[in-house]
From TrEMBL:
The keyword Isomerase does not apply. This is 26S proteasome non-ATPase regulatory subunit 12. InterPro entries: PCI_dom, PSMD12-CSN4-like_N, PSMD12/CSN4, RPN5_C, WH-like_DNA-bd_sf, WH_DNA-bd_sf. It comes from Zancudomyces culisetae (Gut fungus). PROSITE patterns: PCI. GO terms for cellular component: cytoplasm; nucleus; proteasome regulatory particle, lid subcomplex. Belongs to the proteasome subunit p55 family. Signal peptide: none annotated. Residues 92-267 form the PCI domain. Keywords: Proteasome.
């Protein structure tokens, strides 16, 4: 192919443009597999060129349900590894984790020891993802892979830390996990992306601790908060503000008194519902008391007649 010749000459941009000239999905003479292979090559060249916006458009031409048909495991792996590459570039860690999960469910991976690296990456990228209901659900789904996680005790313990409502000490975390994690390509100190993800991991620990504190405290001083999460007061305030802006927690900071309040004010509907509930409880108590008085009166009158 002309595109292969151009790529061999180092002209990746020209090779990509040549491949993109053909709208392969409109070719009726080709079968599904041939079309998918061609689109995957377009996707690969777009990423090699650095045109990630076009890569997204090309990736949407592939119907992932096709990978459920027999003998498409190689195409499935090519697709998801390319999408992992895109997700890492865009720092879409939740999507990266979901792609690794799909890779893990491929028979070719399960039958080989390659699943070890895949599960490790699933755990790490799930933790790096921004907090959301979907992220929590994904963490719990990965936690159910008990047979695989038993063979990876460090990653199993790492997963438990982020799925329990307990504070994580960064010093202890560094001692127990960081030495192992920096040896992987995800947190490699030799790459710029690895350094960025290492910083992100520290932020994830801090954000986890703030969420735990918000669930246990109604009010706390900034000084005590900064001690618990291992940051200075200004950094602690900045992290709280970030979580408030992203609607992960509710908090209000009284700067003059340096107090953070996590107590969310009740809405009018909540106040009304509580009032109605209190009134109903009061009426039930009155009714029960009246019944007991009547019962006692009847018992007394019967006793006197006897």
């Amino acid at each position: 192919m002309l595109s292969e010749i151009k790529e061999g000459q180092g002209k990746v941009g020209e090779a990509c443009d040549i491949m993109l000239e053909d709208q392969i999905e409109t070719f009726g003479s080709l079968n599904k597999r041939e079309k998918t292979e061609f689109i995957l090559e377009q996707l690969r060249l777009c990423m090699a060129k650095g045109d990630y916006e076009r890569a997204v458009i090309v990736s949407r031409k592939i119907n992932v349900s096709y990978f459920k048909t027999p003998n498409t495991g190689d195409l499935k792996l090519r697709y998801y590894y390319l999408m992992i590459q895109y997700g890492i570039h865009e720092e879409q860690y939740l999507e990266v984790c979901k792609h690794y999960y799909n890779v893990f469910e491929t028979d070719e991976i399960k039958l080989d020891n390659k699943w070890v690296v895949v599960v490790q990456h699933m755990v790490v990228y799930a933790i790096l993802a921004s907090y959301s209901n979907e992220q929590v659900d994904l963490l719990n789904r990965i936690k159910q892979l008990s047979s695989e996680l038993e063979k990876l005790p460090i990653y199993s313990n790492l997963l438990k830390l982020f799925t329990t409502q307990k504070l994580i000490s960064w010093d202890k975390f560094s001692t127990d996990f960081l030495h192992t994690l920096v040896q992987s390509d995800v947190f490699s100190e030799q790459t710029e992306g690895g350094k960025i993800r290492s910083t992100r991991l520290h932020n994830c620990v801090v954000e986890h601790n703030i969420r735990v504190i918000a669930s246990y405290y109604s009010k706390i001083t900034l000084t005590r908060l900064s001690q618990l999460i291992g940051l200075d007061i200004d950094q602690a305030e900045e992290k709280v503000c970030h979580l408030v802006v992203t609607k992960v927690i509710y908090a209000r900071i009284d700067r003059p008194s340096k107090i953070v309040s996590f107590l969310q004010p009740k809405s009018v509907d909540q106040e009304l519902n509580e009032w109605v509930s209190d009134v109903n409880s009061l009426l039930m108590l009155v009714e029960k008391t009246s019944h007991l008085i009547d019962k006692e009166g009847i018992v007394t009158s019967i006793t006197r007649t006897l």
